[in-house]
Known about the structure:
Layout: H1 17-26, H2 35-45, E1 52-55, E2 59-62, H3 82-91, H4 98-104, H5 110-123
Antiparallel strand pairs: 1-2
Helix pairs in contact: 3-5
Amino acid sequence: MTIEDLYSAHKSIPANPLIADTFYLNGTIEKAGTGTGDIVEYSTKKGLKKPTFKQGSGFDVILYRETYTDQPTDQPTDQPTDQVIQLIVAIGEKTLSAAEIMELLNLKHRPTFRENYMKPAIKQKLVNLLHPDNL
């Protein structure tokens, strides 16, 4: 079996059939040989880059968290974080200063506000700054 074989349906012989049977009876796995295919399918359905399989002294699967897309880079591709959603809800249609937004969100630490709330929201084009130099 090659690494490329792991990206499609293939026969699998468990190294320890007793453990495989336990996982099957527990409902953790459906059948042997579907795991790597499921990983590839679930990753691509979520818009993630296809995982990388490596065989060395052990077996490694590299999963990618960044969204993979063929869209132009000027379109947002990330899902808003909870912090960004809180920011958008707090702002609504209002024009507010950073201090006013921080007060609404009950935040005291400006660097946290800037890095976790504002920068991601700006990157995703969810907010516009009236004074970009003041961030």
